[in-house]
Amino acid sequence: MRYVENAPRFPFFTGKGGVGKTSVACATAVELASHGRRVLLVSTDPASNLGQVFGITIGNLVTMIPSVPGLAGLEIDPEQAVEAYRERIIAPIRGLLPEMEIAGITEGLSGSCTTEIASFDEFTRLLTDDSEYADYDHVIFDTAPTGHTIRLLQLPGSWTEFLSTGGDASCLGPLAGLEKQRATYAAAVATLTDPARTRLVLVARPQPSALTEIERTFSELTAIGMTHAFVVINGVLPDRAGDEPIASAVRAREAAALSAVPATIADLPRDVLELKAGNVVGLDALRAFFGPDRAAAPAADGAAVPDLPDAPLAALVDEIERDGRCLVMCMGKGGVGKTTIAAALALALAQRGHEESAFLRTRARYEIAQIAHVRALADRVAIVPLLAEEPIGVTRLSALTGAISQPAA
């Protein structure tokens, strides 16, 4: 794997939800540790599943990974990070100021700004604290889906500029600490933009949306000086999967996507990883991750096939209609299709001619731009936020459910 060769101290794995960032990051950490490197694997994703992959509990404290000498894990938990950050700010002045003043400072450190800065503070300490993390040869970051990662990586430069222009930094803590923080953020910027210390690993599936996502990520991070990047195409169907119609169609679709890689990332060093037959969980799977997957996923002997519900999505639309005006929240693991389902539901409700608007609310990510064309078909669908990107049609949304606008029989 080219992206593993001469790995710098800080590799960052990023990409669209569900492309396999965590699997690739964990396998990379195990691979480096197996060669005698000391590795700290850090998740900046609030929905981290590092512990699930390794089969242990990993929290906001550095945790050694059993059976992998030299490897440790850490999950940055926003709530715990806020508590630790608040205590670091208040502890030195507790007992020196009246309780009323302490209460006021505590309240000032309770907003969303503090939550963001607390997580960011943990992140910058990992980049700049040579005393606490000096023992590690590599600190690998398994990041949240793209939008969160871009924000996180842009923050050092944003806060450095903010402080340099005299901005209101009340959520950063007492003014006496600003000079130290300014130096810390500047050091973080220097680390992130240094190719000798930092490497971006852009992970994607062989799918147009995932490739477009990493192209956007690379473009935005290039603007802040992060230019040293590698591309990993994960989950490519191998030839030995057979030549039956479905396999052939999948390979043709993947080949078409890879032949149309966006120009911005087309010349970046690229590695290709095969689709695995089963979930990448446990050390055996991680150690075998970079080799060919010769065996199919084993089936449990005599295991019964679960009786899963098989109802059209239109039935869910019927149920939402019966409930009247309500809030519908589409949630799930990254990459499972939350945005697609939310868009299909909003479109179906609008197509049924309701007086009230059907709102599609989503995070500010590229996928929402791809479904913005629903407005042209049904002006009762309001998209918040609506990004100004080139829209595509709604054919695939309607095809997802069949005649979704028709009530279920």
UniProtKB/TrEMBL annotation:
Annotated ranges, domain CobQ/CobB/MinD/ParA nucleotide binding: 328-354
Domain of life from the UniProt record: Bacteria
Stretches that traverse the bilayer: none
Gene Ontology molecular function: ATP binding; ATP hydrolysis activity
One Pfam family it belongs to: CbiA
InterPro entries in UniProt: ArsA/GET3_ATPase-like (IPR025723), ATPase_ArsA/GET3 (IPR016300), CobQ/CobB/MinD/ParA_Nub-bd_dom (IPR002586), P-loop_NTPase (IPR027417)
Domain ArsA/GET3 Anion-transporting ATPase-like: start-end pairs: 9-289
Family of this protein: Belongs to the arsA ATPase family.
Protein name from the UniProt record: TRC40/GET3/ArsA family transport-energizing ATPase
Natural source organism: Microbacterium sp. LWS13-1.2
